[in-house]
Amino acid sequence: MEITLEQALRLTSWFQKNQRILPWRNTGNPYDVWLSEIMLQQTRVEFVKERFLQFRKKLPDIASLAECEDDRLMKLWEGMGYYSRARNLKKCAQAVMQEYDGVLPADPCKLRKLPGIGPYTSGAIAAIAYGIPVPAVDGNVLRVLARLFSDPSDIRNPETRKSYESVISDFYENHLSEAEKADPAFVSHFTQGLMELGALICVPNGEPHCDSCPWKPFCTAHLENRTDEIPYRSALKERKVVKRTLFVIRDGERFLLRKRPAHGLLAGLYEFPGMDEWLDASQAAEAAEQQFHVMPLRIKRLPDSKHLFTHLEWDMRAYEIRIADLSTLKAENCLLLTEKELAETAVPSAFKAVKAWYSL
C-alpha cells in the first residue's frame, strides 16, 4: 500500500478548492486546531461550529482556559457531552502554561505527553498548525485509505490504524520535498484534505460520491465496485441498558441537585439524583425520604426519557417530589438552586428532558 505524489497533489488541489469554511481553519493559531479537534471528538461538525465560536469568545487563548473556574468551564461545555474532554482541556492548558510558556509545542512527542492529547490529536496539531510531516489518522482517514487500497482489514483494529500511519509516513519520507515545491503548505493541506474527503465525498453509511472524488481513478474499492463493503468494521458490543429513576426534589422555589462521584460516568457533575432501577410513585417517595431525610408532600410522574452513552443506555422515568422546605435537607454534595440558577448551571444532557419540562 502506498500513496503516490500524483494522488497526494490531486488531493491537496481538491481540498484548496472545495474545503468547508470552518471557524478554526486558516487562522494560523494552534489553539484553534487543538480546541476544534477536542470538540469534534464524538460531536457533529455543525454543532461544534456554533459552540466553538461561543467557547472561543469566552476563553480566547490558552491562558484564559487555564485560569477558568471549573463550574464556568462545565457550563461553557454544557450539551457537548463527554465532559472529561473539558477537564482535560483545562489540565492541558495549565501544563502548557507551566511547561511551554503558553504555546502548544510543535513536537508531536511533547504534545502526546500533555493531558487529553493522544496520537491522532498530536498528529493533527503538529501537521495542521505547524506543518510537521506526521500522520493524523481519524475515522475519516481510515475509511478513505481502506477504500483507496480496497483493504479488507478491520478499521476498529489498532493495527490497521498503525499500518495507515506507516503509509503516510512513508509518503512523507519519499515525496515531501517534491510535494512542498508544488504546495508550500502541503502537509497541512494534505492532512486536512484526507479528513475532508472522508467527511464530504467518501462518506460512510451509504453511497460515496465517487463521481466528485479526486481519487476516483485510483480508488481500488471503486474500481472493484466494493465501496459498499469497504471499509470492514467489526460489530460493537451492544449497549448495556440501565433502568433508572430520577428524583426531581423541589420546594416552592428551589430544586435539589447532587454532585456525582469524582470518578466514573459524568464524574463531578451535578445531576437530578436517582437510582439504578425503576420505581413506582410510592417507592420513589420512600427512596427520596430515606436518602435525603425529607418528607414528600406530593409526587408527580414526569415524561420518560432515554440517553445514550458510548457503551451504556439510561432508560429513565422521573418523578417530581414536592416538599415543604429544602432548607431542612440533610445531605452532602448537594446544591439548592432556583429555576434561574439551575438554568445557569451545567447539567449533563442526559437530563435535558427534565430541564425541558420546566422550560429551563
How would you characterize the overall build of this protein?
By secondary structure, this protein is an alpha+beta fold. The protein folds into 2 domains: 5-224, Endonuclease III, domain 1 (Orthogonal Bundle), CATH 1.10.340.30; 240-358, Alpha-Beta Complex (Nucleoside Triphosphate Pyrophosphohydrolase). Helices cover 46% and strands 13% of the residues. The strands form 2 sheets. Strands 4-1-6-5 form a 4-stranded mixed sheet. Strands 3-2-7 form a 3-stranded antiparallel sheet. The N and C termini lie far apart (54 Å). The model has no long low-confidence stretch (mean pLDDT 92). Its cofactor is [4Fe-4S] cluster. This is Adenine DNA glycosylase. InterPro entries: DNA_glycosylase, HhH-GPD_domain, HhH_base_excis_C, MIG/MutY, MutY_C, NUDIX_hydrolase-like_dom_sf.
